[in-house]
Design goal:
binds zinc ion; TIM Barrel; alpha/beta; 9 helices; two-stranded antiparallel sheet; about 280 residues
Length: about 280
Amino acid sequence: MTDSHCHIHFQGYKDDMEEVIDRTQTRGVRMITIGTQKDTSKYGIEVAEAHENIWCTVGLHPNHVHKQTIHEDAMDAFSTREETFDKDYYRELIKSSSKVVAIGEVGLDFFRLPDMDKEDVMETQLVNVHHALELANETNLPVVLHVRDAHAEMVDVLKQYIDSGRLDRRGVVHCFTGTIEEARAYHDIGFFTSFTGIMTFKDRKDPEKLTPLMEVARDVPLEWMMVETDAPYLTPEPHRGKRNEPWMVIHVAEKVAELKGVNVEEVERMTDENANKLFKLV
Ligand SMILES: [Zn+2]
Ligand SMILES: [Zn+2]
């Protein structure tokens, strides 16, 4: 199957990346490793070029358009630099390797805002999203979107492009945590929604109860679904608390199968096909 969104080339694996790749490939899991800024986009290409069944993307995460500290109180806290989506730089990276299968992650994150004027921050994120979408159209690549608390705004922007005959390859909204209505708004314009380990997290008060996100995953048709780990972050159950690894995407697929009452093979086959189709993996 396919982990449609991980960061296997990130610092979290600096001591044992090859071992984690081995463990993942032994289990038959393919990977798309995602860039988030200039240097991680460049290094992702190197790792993809060096391995079978690993592809990569180049992009600028919305949290990287301003300087801020993410997960401030957590073990995996990190600081971001301020970068802008440099079209010329990313265009050269795309030209340099056939392993680059998408532009991303790019998008809008109105949840984790730095301590600045909110309107300014949102405006800057939007400007960068437009640059990324323009390059996606120019290079005829799909986009991997990171969207939090900004689904209506994102759909609006995407519609502008699609209605004017741009963004033919469409894309995927990764780590989807919105409502079923928000998911459908993406499917209606040809975008997939992808689920991470968050969807496996139990309700704190009542572990037997379905969480709102589980209900969304149950209701999203497999035709519009992908699964991912976002590793090293967001470790799924039953490994929560440990470092995430791309093979753990199997647990995300298992949860989807359980919620939908279908075989896990069916979930693996469909999400694989979706990844093949969107990213042209085969
Ligand atoms: Zn993301
Ligand atoms: Zn990510």
